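Posting here for the record, re: 2-(butylsulfanyl)adenosine.
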Amino acid sequence: MTDLERIMEKLTKLRNQISYHDVLYHQKNKPEITDAEYDELKRKVVEIEAQLPEIYATQDSVGAAPDERFSKAKHQEPMLSLENAYDEQGVERFLSKIKRFLIENEIEILCEPKIDGLSFSAIYEDGRFVRAATRGDGFVGEDVTHNVATIKGFPKFLQGVQGNLEVRGEIYLSNSDFFKLNENNEFANPRNAAAGSLKQLDANVTAGRPLKYFTYSLIGGAEKSQSEVLNRLEALGFYVNEHRSLTSSLYGMLKFYNEVNDCRHSLDYDIDGVVYKVNDLVLQNRLGSTHKAPRSALAYKFSPVYAKTKLNKIFVQVGRTGVLTPVADLAPVNIGGVLVGRASLHNQDEIKRKDIREGDIVIIKRAGDVIPQIVRVDKDSRHADVPKFVFPEVCPECGGEVKIERAAVRCSEEFTCKAQIVGKLKHFASKDAFDIVGLGEKQIKFFYGLGLVKQIPDIFTLEERLNEFNLAEQPDWGEKSIANLLNAIQSRRVINLDRFIFSLGIRFIGQVAAKLLADYYVSYNEWYNSMIRLSSDGTKLIDIGNVGEKTAKSFGDELLGIDGIGKEVAKSLESFFSKKHNIKMLNDLTACLHILPANSNSSGSVLNNKIIVFTGKLRIMSREEAKVRAKALGAKISSNLSAKTDYLIAGEDPGSKYKKAAELGVEILDEDQWHKMTNLEVSE
Ligand code: IVH
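Prediction output follows.
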């Protein structure tokens, strides 16, 4: 492959990636990458093309093909994009480059916020609005005349205008309208929601969405500068963004960026940076444009990872296990394409350590799929008399007493605290648990509020109670939705043991621990009986500091012996099964269900369901590998020897377990016998 071929291959690959993301973004409104990542792909294309000017001097290489569902609208002048800068050096380079190009020492720059919406063009003939189009690929857009006409405050007639006039700007959704519209989390950010709202074949749908716009360009007017353009647009009755600044210095340009960045959170719309424009239109004309963007303008984008915003309030949530978790309610701010309105504060200590207070200006970090975090507080912008945040001394949901367990503060009213009950019900019905479609937080709160579902088993007897309650009279409920919900509940009466265990929402029993328990005990009855014995066993795990050192033989030993089950899980199970309320709940619940035993796909294996304990050093493979093989053959690995153990696999220097196994009558296999049993060739 020649160098050129290699470059062309790379270029094709990048372009394919861009087209793929364009379709996701423009047509499906479901982007998979952040704006910054997308910009980076585009930047790479431009970089490669710059190395091949003879091939790419005139082509527009990047842009989205217009959506085929709409009539096409050819732009009178191409709708270009903007060159981006991500740091101060980029801004400096831009300013010195245009000064060099124009051989000028001083150039006036008009600074504007960069609205994160979707660009549009609107054509007026003799003052009458005749057509509106989206950007599309920059040359041909989608005809959205009827949709744009529905936008509140969009002028249909311009007083005193003769001939052809084109107005360009940005259509957007306010952050507050976005949150209202996006209850089901359909859209990642207001821009996608705005695009989805505008690109409706039925303009009546668009009319129902609270779209807004700002204009920033005028083609066909007599204005001499960008400042005059903005004033004229305002005079004609268009919305124009109020923030702007005229400057001739780099300092002024950066100052505007910092000011806008700092006040971003107080705007109810998304901006993703600022735009610098050479103010004089004659100079703009002289600078001209590349195939992609005008040389006279630059977008200085905000960081895709960090943002400053205002922490409006700290509220304390109570989860299903009763832990009080502080959460920051933020003035929404877009970080890397996602509108962030909440951040995790972890626990009381974190608030103290970072000295976070309500009303503070904070620096937020959002990276990947991690829940946004507060990095630090901008202490300079704090008023002197702002009080420290006081962590609640009782449960904020039920007023119950709280207990401190290391960093966590926990409500002790497990069975009466509404937040804990609702949290448990929500977990029980959730996707990875019973997966009851149509029984989300909203419905659970609704049924709980009416006293129709007060605890988990009530879900399965809801139908009986609904016979005496006219649900169809309640808002949001109709015959169909009730039937759907009852069907969804009915269809979940049969469940696998591991899912069942997970659904109970017992502390520390996640999906992995639930599977280990289900595999070990196989049937519900076996698990239940063992757990009851565990909690009535005289040797309480709860009182023991270090379970590993425990010598007294207790039932907890068996549980702790299960490979992967630790002290916390064992203690938590013991605590769960020692409460009468839970036992009654389990009995009521299981009376409504058919719980399938854990099925092993290794039922033909001699090791299936056999309990195995390893001791001593193995020669042929590591203990880890031997365990994995044994599990794959259906065996259950334990670290504690008991009469229930089927085989003790004894390697070199086996220790006390060997003797104990002999006493208990447990079959002992040496390593070779073990490998034969598991069909492994033994070669020295
Ligand atoms: S001027 C040649 N001014 O940003 C394009 N664009 O990333 C000139 N945008 O396509 C556009 N706010 O959709 C301009 N104050 C502003 C803007 C702005 C947002 C958008 C516009 C453009 C995109 C480029």
